[in-house]
Amino acid sequence: MDPESAEAMRTLVSKGVLGAGVLATDDIHGDYEKLKARGVEFLQEPQERPYGTEAIFRDDSGNWFSFTQPRGDLDLDKDWAC
Questions:
Q1: Which of 19, 21, 69, 78 has its CA at 20 to 30 Å from residue 57's CA atom?
Q2: In sequence order, what E strands does the chain have?
């Protein structure tokens, strides 16, 4: 990323207008506990989804992120209706 684009991204993040982001992990439950212990504000604990296990957190600027441990294949055998 060029310096001008990097600065634009930092500005968006600091204003809380980035919107949303997605981060992947191979240990959602362990990483969730570590981040929570360090003060990360989670809006949703890890929950099973068709695409994997997902937790939602917010940064200190108000941007929110999906923290996901992807599943190998979509699980279409469960009833995922809310």
A1: 78
A2: 20-24, 41-49, 52-58, 64-70
